[in-house]
């Protein structure tokens, strides 16, 4: 058995009970150090822990796949939810195993942000730049989302200088592409663990620096009017 689970945005209290049960019953727990640390209190002493980083993830996942094929119950833990900025890692797990694997969703940093900042999914688009490959289509999509008067929840890319696309770069790119400097912008850091929040405009964001563990909300300039029934007169 092998299952990939979303470990939530940082605090173990945000982990679904079913996922906690899977970890308690596992023979092998694998994942990036910071994510495994989130679920560490649930890992049984008898379980093998397979830690990895960007550089050795392929080799370590091959080791996990061998344990899975040998009959061990394996759990691979993902940051937040698997379905937002987690699919490339899922692809690596499945490539190592040689078949599709079961997944269990987790609570995403995007969901916690939506809750803290009180935005509705229906009127919001989710975009991540924290992925390998060509970011151009995602950048273009973000411009279209804002032109369409929707909110955008954006995961920046914190990698090396050549690829880094952090809130300041995102803001500068949007301004160059005709998005209003007045667009209300928020950056939230370390959600569920010592949170920090910044509120300003897109123009102000272009001069700000944030940590790797940050997520951005760019609000529409024209929020939708309520579409529920009119309130009854008193
Ligand atoms: C590879 S993405 C994974 C996102 C994850 N799958 C999710 O659903 O939240 C990692 C990035 O997500 C953002 N992120 C994850 N957890 C966060 C948190 N607790 N607070 C703020 N940003 C977070 C950061 O930008 C981080 O570098």
UniProtKB/TrEMBL annotation:
- Domain annotation Tetrapyrrole methylase: ranges: 1-204
* Superkingdom: Bacteria
Q: Which GO terms describe its biological process?
A: cobalamin biosynthetic process; methylation
GO molecular function (one): protein methyltransferase activity
List the Pfam families hit by this protein, alphabetically. TP_methylase (PF00590)
Q: Which pathway does it operate in? A: Cofactor biosynthesis; adenosylcobalamin biosynthesis
Keywords for this entry? Cobalamin biosynthesis, Methyltransferase, S-adenosyl-L-methionine, Transferase
What name has this protein been given in UniProt?
Answer: Cobalt-precorrin-7 (C(5))-methyltransferase
């Amino acid at each position: 058995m092998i299952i990939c689970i979303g470990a939530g945005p940082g605090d173990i209290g945000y982990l679904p009970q079913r996922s906690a049960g899977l970890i308690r019953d596992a023979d092998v727990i694998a994942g990036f150090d910071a994510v495994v640390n989130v679920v560490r209190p649930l890992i049984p002493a008898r379980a093998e822990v397979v830690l990895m980083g960007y550089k050795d993830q392929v080799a370590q996942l091959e080791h996990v796949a061998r344990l899975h094929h040998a009959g061990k119950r394996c759990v691979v833990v993902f940051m937040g939810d698997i379905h937002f900025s987690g699919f490339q890692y899922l692809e690596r797990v499945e490539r190592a195993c040689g078949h599709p694997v079961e997944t269990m969703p987790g609570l995403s940093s995007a969901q916690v942000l939506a809750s803290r900042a009180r935005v509705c999914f229906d009127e919001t688009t989710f975009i991540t730049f924290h992925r390998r490959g060509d970011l151009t289509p995602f950048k273009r999509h973000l411009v279209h989302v804002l032109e369409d008067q929707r909110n955008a929840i954006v995961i920046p890319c914190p990698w090396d200088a050549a690829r880094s696309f952090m809130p300041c770069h995102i803001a500068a790119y949007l301004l160059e592409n005709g998005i209003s400097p007045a667009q209300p912008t928020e950056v939230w850091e370390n959600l569920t663990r010592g949170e920090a929040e910044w509120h300003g405009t897109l123009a102000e964001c272009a001069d700000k620096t944030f940590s790797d563990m940050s997520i951005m909300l760019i609000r529409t300039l024209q929020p939708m009017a309520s579409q529920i029934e009119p309130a009854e007169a008193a």
